[in-house]
């Protein structure tokens, strides 16, 4: 994430805030105002997040409004996003080639897919050189709206896999902190992560491994929201856009996450435990009501020593994530 922050800075798309700002409502409010500026908005880096109620200062800065405008999106893509759209459009129009030139073009198109699948590293020493945090309370998790039920991770990359490990999924679901090492997993019934959950549950398992990454290449979180067909791993889109595969490293629970993540939270979803999640200020401009959702038990938290905590404001569009 630090590399992308430098790119934003070099392109005059970053505003650094040195003053202490509260994770309770204040950071989110400033980010909301900035996001409403549209193309004139910038990413915000809060260097000194605090929690006034807890009399606590966090050591990890908070990055908000990462995708502040079209220029920032192009920088995250590494090229013009319209070019990516054109390539995807061409894929939908592929047909059986007849001429020699058409066959060569078809072959070159196929060849371009060699860097699409993610690359799994056998072991990434960097992850194990990360600092081990004692609890989620060491992260500057935000409360966004005054009637929110608590603090929520809003830009967590949630990595899961199906029971026979043939399918992987990356989703972006809000995660409410319900305890210092516990999160509530807000995945809707139509999401792949929820489908995997039911696979494990129907097979009689008590736990389902889950890992959450925060930060790293900003394109990871962008891909997590892409409306891809069921069963398609979102990081395939990363490889397609970047023309280089995403590099993944294994967690102790068997789930693979990007090797350059700033923060990694690993654990499992308890298939027999539910807790009330919400309310939460949502995209509709209203609060979603409190409902029962699965509980994730956090077993280990890794963080780079210079980690950046990435978050976003969820609310009525236009905003960063909608």
Q: What would you say this structure looks like, in words?
A:
It contains nine helices and 21 strands. It has 322 residues and is α+β, with helices and mostly antiparallel strands. The strands form five sheets. Strands 8, 9, 10, 11, 12, 13, 14, 17 and 20 form a nine-stranded antiparallel β-sheet that branches. Strands 1-3-6-21 form a four-stranded mixed β-sheet. It has a three-stranded mixed β-sheet with strand order 2-4-5, with no helix packed on it. It is globular, with a radius of gyration of 20 Å. The model has no long low-confidence stretch (mean pLDDT 90).
Question: How are the SSEs placed, and which strands pair?
Answer:
Blueprint: H1 2-10, E1 14-17, E2 21-22, H2 26-35, E3 43-46, E4 49-51, E5 56-57, E6 62-64, H3 70-77, H4 81-91, H5 100-111, E7 119-120, H6 125-128, E8 131-133, E9 152-153, E10 157-161, E11 168-172, E12 175-179, E13 182-185, H7 192-202, E14 207-214, H8 218-224, H9 235-242, E15 247-250, E16 256-258, E17 263-277, E18 280-281, E19 287-288, E20 291-303, E21 309-310
Parallel strand pairs: 1-3, 2-4, 6-21, 7-15
Antiparallel strand pairs: 3-6, 4-5, 8-20, 9-12, 10-11, 10-14, 12-13, 13-20, 14-17, 15-16, 17-20, 18-19
Number of helices: 9
Termini separation (Å)?
Answer: 21 Å
Radius of gyration: 20 Å
The structure class reads alpha+beta
Overall geometry: globular
Helices and strands, in order, run as HEEHEEEEHHHEHEEEEEEHEHHEEEEEEE
CATH homologous superfamily grouping = Electron Transport, Fmn-binding Protein, Chain A
Low-confidence stretches: none
- Biggest β-sheet strands, sense, barrel: 9 strands, antiparallel
- Strand residues, percent: 25-35%
The total strand number stands at 21
Number of domains: 1
